[in-house]
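User: Here's a chain of 517 residues. Predict its fold as tokens.
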Amino acid sequence: MTAKQKDFLLGIDVGTTLIKSALFDLDGHMVALSSAGVGLEHPSPGWAEQDMDAVWRATSQTIREAVQAADQSGGKIAAISTSGQGGGMWLIDRDGRPVRKGITWLDGRAGEFFPDWEKAGIIEELDESTGYHTFPGVGPLLIFHWFKKHDPNILSKAYKTLWAKDWVKFKLTGVVATDESDPSNGHFLRGERQFSEPLFEMLEVKEYMHLLPPIVPSWQVMGKVNAEAAAETGLQTGVPVASGAWDVSSTGLGAGCIREGQTLSILGTAGIHLSVSAAAPQEKKAPYSACVHCVPGHWVVNSMAMTATSNLDWFIRESCQADKDDAERTGKNFFEIINARVAASPVGAGGVIFLPFLQGERAPFVKPNARGVFFGISDATTRGDLLRSIYEGVAFSARHNYEVIERAIPIREVVLSGGGSKSAVWSQIVSDCTNKPMTIPAGEEFGALGAALNAGVAVGIYKDHREAASHLSIARRHQPDTQNHALYQGYYEIYRQLIKNNWETWEKLAEIRNRRR
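Assistant: Prediction complete.
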């Protein structure tokens, strides 16, 4: 395909609670963004479902608004792709209708089997075989088992199972397909790129493998917009749709992480850290997970902390009303006030160390009952010290996760994104603590951008992913301060020791807490 000056690429990000359609020009600049919320339903404790038709309605609404933006610019959409939440199970029948509500990655119903599977060594074998840490909502492999035991009639009605982004692609094209990145989370043998029969035999669900969709690589066209979708969205019929990717992989591409050793840290609600590898890691009892990247021939090694900026959100909500009042009274930006307080506190936050485990932890260690700790508070401690200790605690968590990832692949460079990266102070703290240079990319919506770049590669607008990523620009860079890093070394050692010291105490506290309920 020959690209024209007014061609656009449409990236659709099917998030857990928010759908976004972003329009990009061929240089990767976002031209328009439309978003719509979609709710989670919890019909039983631990379940997490979504109305598949509601997801499509929200998506079609955002697409229509993106199409209008393209029309107003006098251009056209040359190609489309999707990224989306991983895991779960989205069943359709032979008529393309949902069999039931979509099951999301947050769903825990398959967790009822985990005690028996753990005793039998099945969870350990799954982890070692796939290179991915198994959890209840990981995908159809485990969820098939639950329905086989509790509601097999649902599976008998199904024609295919999809991942969230694939449901949107199906509604656009009428074609059933997934990519490699989504099912590589727990459904492939280590280093392979196809569904593994032995895994489904292990879970006693081999008879349902016919429900799995065909695999089309992320950067290839899987179908074209059909007439029905065109009528609902305003798209032109025949627009190519590329296969897309799991949102974590797609975000890596959108942030420019396409070569070995390039690492993305997303300081959002959670702390997501991933590094690109040219080979599948072979460590069997690895503390990290690995999946197929949406860039040909590459994998992503990831370690995902439970929290990052949510620690700051909690502290602001509970302890920063005076700063909010000050911002309203003076017209100052609230976060500028917060960052100024952090900058005024010295390296080490006046001797206060924060453990950022408000919701337990999943990486680089698994400890659901871990909780947050402020250690070292004195009568000289200021609000700025507490704030800085939160920034530093999240940076210590990043360093801890980097150490895990570097068991598989040396980290060459780090791209920092997410809400935390908007703070130059926080970005510098992460650089100093980890002793890694930090690059802050320009723009936003990197998951949707990664989808758009895959679409561009699929139709030949870009020769390859390297050319696609070459258009991305940098907002700023941070180099580690060697003196600050030396100071942080001692604090980091105490941080690690505090985790060890509290390991059993967290369990005792949880026991007492649960006793009171």
